[in-house]
Amino acid sequence: MMYIFNFPDIGEGLEEGTILKWHVVKGQQIKAGQALVNMETDKIVTDIPSPKTGTIVQVFGSEGETIKVGSPLAEIEIEGVSGAEAVAEAKEPQTKETIKVHPEEEGAGVVGTMELAGNNAYMPASNEGHEDQPKAEEKKTATKAISTPLARAMAKDMGIDINQVNGTGPSGRVTKEDVENYKTTGRTDEKARKTETHLAPAPPAEAVTYEPLSQIRKTIARNMLNSKQSTAHMTLFEEVEISELVKTREKFKQKTAAENTKLTYLAFIVKATVGALKKFRQLNSQIDVENDRMIYHNRYNIGIAVDTPEGLVVPVIRDADRLSLLQVAQKISEISEKAHGRKLALEDMREGTFTITNYGSIGGIFATPVINFPQTGILGVGRIVKQPVVKGNDIVVGSVLPLSLSVDHRIVDGAEASRFMNHILELLGDPVMMVLE
Description:
Elements: E1 2-6, E2 16-22, E3 29-30, E4 35-40, E5 45-49, E6 54-59, E7 66-68, E8 72-77, H1 83-90, E9 99-100, H2 103-106, E10 111-112, H3 149-158, H4 176-185, H5 190-199, H6 215-230, E11 233-241, H7 243-258, H8 265-279, E12 285-288, E13 293-296, E14 302-308, E15 311-313, E16 316-317, H9 325-340, E17 354-357, E18 377-381, E19 385-391, E20 394-408, H10 414-429, H11 432-436
Parallel strand pairs: 14-17, 17-18
Antiparallel strand pairs: 1-8, 2-4, 2-7, 3-6, 4-5, 6-8, 9-10, 11-20, 12-13, 14-15, 14-16, 18-20, 19-20
Helix pairs in contact: 3-4, 8-9, 8-10
């Protein structure tokens, strides 16, 4: 029997996906669970496994093509399965797959229920009546020549179709010399036409280049617009002198490197943020307008914005409050590698309660980061800069870390945002306090 496997909804309201690579070709044997196609969805890139064992009869969609959930992905020939069994499987509520009916069997659409009885075995669709027809001769569009009145009169007297004469005059105008040359040689003067070609300006380069939007870029655009339309953004800017933090990191980074872990400033920032979220729970919440209530999160799942060639993704470090500094550093390395290798799973992207974006790793200082809706806040981390700072009565060279905090002003007042930021500054300015907390 023939079986149509439709593109399934693999989670969180997925609507469509883009085919990146087919792992199978027509005529190939495939087993249930074997990778069928690599798809890019709005959150992840993942392999879609085959639900059945059989032979690939046809694949639907080419690489780079976007298809909707529920649309056919592949047609699989399954041996030893009756039509009744196929119908029963197709009616199971947990599946969205269907059995294929060809037009000559049903007289309807190609997807439906197929009944098999006796010798009514499946036969491939006939090409009868669908042979390629010879293409009709393309019609030539007549163009009216631009000419001088004298040239047009001469052509009429000579019985020449002036529209067939190549003009060598200004803007391609047909002159009397063109008509005379055409009468003599059947063509216009070759030298004149070469001169005209030589003087003609080169065709302009294409003004624009069109490329289709990737699934990730479409998601980013949708989420950013949703955030701006659904929240009341307010951004607070601060700086913190982190010379003590720089010394602490320098002291321990060799030791952590020996354990194959890169100790970054971001790991300290994650721990400081978690400490502030514990004291100011308003920033670890979201608003439920429809039910007139607040939702306070009891877990501290920190999303880390990761820049990839395909676009920005935000994998999540779950229960960051329960992790040591070293474990946080390990998690940051792990999710970053998975993001750049396009190996993030849906589970890596879910349930974030607060987000940190480190644009300073590229070179930015301050920004107004956009809240990862429906979260309440996002902390932007700028580039550490060396600059003069006042310590006591002395001016010394300090390491200054700029921070930008965007919050949903419907939920967080300015004073609360300032207190939250001050606690982060305190922890980063004296990293020993992180241990005390």
